[in-house]
Each structure stands twice: as structure tokens, then as C-alpha cells.
Specification:
Largest sheet: 7 strands, parallel
Strand content: 5-15%
Radius of gyration: 19 Å
Distance between the termini: 59 Å
Structural class: alpha/beta
Number of strands: 7
């Protein structure tokens, strides 16, 4: 028996990375899950992995859908509720960064990053909120980023979307707390996932150098921290490397910006040599 025995979760973006690791650990602790991602092949492969961690009394489903498309994800939500009941948790992990110099960005890049990182999380939450309210309980888990509370060079398209996730989650927390609904926000630093490999393909060299300071976590480490935070009802969940910058941004933002500006000058000066 684990902390999530008998609990159920709808997990968006669970075919790889942090989402898949969370699904596996959730199953290992007794939970049942419906996994959602756009690509059926990788999603079913991920579901098979999670089934290997689940017991005979648990269930794991693979439900292909585009979480940002209302009609697509609505069908998944309504079908799941008809068959399994209202889930205890909605965990959102969908997203991906497109880092670039601001001079290389187009308006379409800004829209795409909002679609990928914000609407994929906000739309499923809007659809599930009435069910959580009617039942009088439920728990939303969102994935923001370290770039969801401060931003550096290269993330002019990505950071606003992650700020939006945090703002949306904060608004839900305030509005839905009287209805017995909890909210958690995950703020991971760089994590060794397929998404990071893709991100590194367009990352400006200054961004890559500045990102090194936060270190690199495994998906398993981040998933463990996330589930610990959820189990304890935490709003802000900070894996290793994320907490100190968050506190600096909150209590000494001028100092954090001065440090970041210094580091950018240092990196550029070193590159010019």
C-alpha cells in the first residue's frame, strides 16, 4: 500500500520525461492512471511501462489526444469519467521550450509556445474544474519552470508561457480552495529528458552557459519531489536547484538580476576572447 493507493489521475504529457516518471512512481505507490499524449505509439509504449509498475487491482490507460484542442481533450475527459469516475488528480506535464534570440523569433513562435506550454495545461483544467467542484475535492498539478518566475536570455517565447501557467494555477488556487480543491505548481530546473535534447538544438550559447549553473536532474528525481509535494499538499514544489533562485526572485529580485547581468557579461566576454 502506497500513498496513492486507490487514487486515480489523469496525466497530460505522460509519454516521456517527467510525466512518464511520475506515472511510474504513482503506479508504484498504488495509483491508477490515464495517460494522455498526442502520439499514439510512444504513448502506448509508456503505458506498458507503467502497467509493469502497477498491481493487479490498478488500471492504466493510454488515451491519445491533443490537450490544447478543446474537442479532442473533452472527449478524453468525458469518456474517462463515464468509465472510471472523476479522477482524484489532474497532472499536467505537457510542454517544450523553443529557445532563441529575440531577434530570431516570429509572432508565430510566441503563439506556438503559448499553445504548447500554457493551453495544453489550462484547457484540461477548465474541463475538469466543474467535476471537481461538484464532488467537493480534487487536486490540480501544473508544470511551470524556473523560467516561470524569472527569465534569462533566449527564453523570450518560453518564459511568458510558463509565467502564464503559474498565474493560472494561482488563480485556481484562490478561487477553488473554498470548494475543497488543491493546486500544486512544479518548478523544475533543466531535466535530462528528450525535450531538453530538442531544446538544446536551438539554445543560444549564452543561454546554455547560464543554464549550467542550475545543474541537471533526472526525471525520476523531479517526479519524486513532485509527488512528495502533492502528497503534502504543497502549492509551490521546487526540485533541487530551483528553490534558491525562487527565494531570491521573491525577496531580493535586484540581487538576482544583478547576478544574471554579471554572468551574461562574463559569458560574452569569455566568448569574445
Amino acid at each position: 500500500m502506497g500513498r496513492f493507493a486507490g487514487k486515480t489521475a489523469l496525466m497530460i504529457g505522460a509519454s516521456q520525461g517527467i510525466g512518464l516518471s511520475t506515472a511510474r512512481q504513482f503506479a508504484q505507490e498504488g495509483g491508477s492512471a490515464a495517460l494522455v499524449a498526442r502520439r499514439p505509439g510512444p504513448l502506448e509504449a509508456a503505458a506498458d511501462e507503467v502497467r509493469g509498475d502497477a498491481g493487479s487491482e490498478q488500471w492504466v490507460e493510454a488515451l491519445p489526444a491533443d490537450a490544447a484542442a478543446e474537442d479532442s481533450i473533452r472527449q478524453v475527459v468525458e469518456s474517462l469519467i463515464d468509465r472510471r469516475g472523476v479522477p482524484d488528480y489532474l497532472f499536467n506535464f505537457a510542454g517544450g521550450a523553443y529557445p532563441a534570440y529575440v531577434t530570431d523569433l516570429r509572432p508565430s513562435d510566441l503563439r506556438s509556445q503559448m499553445e504548447t506550454n500554457y493551453f495544453t495545461q489550462a484547457v484540461p483544467a477548465l474541463l475538469l474544474a466543474p467535476y471537481f467542484i461538484a464532488r467537493g475535492r480534487g487536486h490540480f498539478g501544473f508544470t511551470s519552470s524556473m523560467m516561470g518566475y524569472f527569465a534569462i536570455i533566449g527564453y523570450a517565447a518560453y518564459a511568458p508561457a510558463k509565467f502564464a501557467v503559474a498565474g493560472f494555477a494561482e488563480a485556481l488556487r484562490h478561487e477553488l480552495k473554498p470548494d475543497g480543491i488543491q493546486v500544486s505548481i512544479l518548478y523544475p530546473p533543466d531535466t535530462d529528458t528528450p525535450g531538453l535534447v530538442q531544446e538544446n538544438g536551438t539554445k543560444p550559447p549564452e543561454t546554455a552557459k547560464l543554464s549550467e549553473g542550475a545543474g541537471l536532474l533526472t526525471p525520476e528525481e523531479v517526479a519524486s519531489t513532485f509527488l512528495d509535494g502533492v502528497a503534502h499538499g504543497k502549492l509551490n514544489i521546487h526540485p533541487k536547484g530551483s528553490g534558491l533562485p525562487w527565494r531570491l526572485q521573491r525577496y531580493a529580485p535586484g540581487a538576482l538580476r544583478a547576478y544574471l547581468d554579471f554572468e551574461l557579461r562574463r559569458v560574452r566576454k569569455k566568448a569574445d576572447k
